[in-house]
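Input chain follows. Return structure tokens only.
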Amino acid sequence: MSDSVPPPEPPVQTQAEERAEARAAETAAIRRRWITLGEVLAVIAVIISALTLWNNWSERSDSKAAESAVAERASAKAAALVLTTADIGKRSLTLKPAAAEQSIQSQEILFPTALGAASARTTGEPRIEVSWFEHALEKAREAARLPDNSRGDERLPVAIVTRFIVDGDPHEDVALYDIGYTISGRLLGGHSVELRGLSFVTRVKKGAAQAKLDARWKDVLPVK
């Protein structure tokens, strides 16, 4: 029987080879760690970039919203007309808007129906004149058996429709006002009505202005 040949023994690694393999394994491990760290840093960079973009967008959006809100408030304020007296005379009131950026184009002054005075219109010169309602007011006070002389400032409610312009845009305002006046004299000798000023009451819809005015007139000057 022939002798069997034993398998060759694996080559014995030298210490130098072992150290080389260990260094190679350590280098590979370090490389894997650096790759992993680089991926993490890349993800973090993407997240930071996304957060920066979102923050910038949010700030711009908030800024635009704030600017829009300010513009809307300014527009609403400019469109809200309040009339004041630029000059007070005994027989006339010169009117002007409280806001300087408003320019009055025309007005219609409505008087209470029961007063019997026709409405008055102005163009480019906002004003109220005693002659528009003086005789009718004297008759109404006589019918209501009111004193010949005022006991302080009296009130005559009116509705004023004002067409005005702000920054080139047309607007219309309808509001109730009280005309302040005094009256003196005697029935046979004639009365004298003098104007004292104008006071804002409330803003109303145009279609309801006359009805609101008539209701206020009944409170101010009830017929006895």
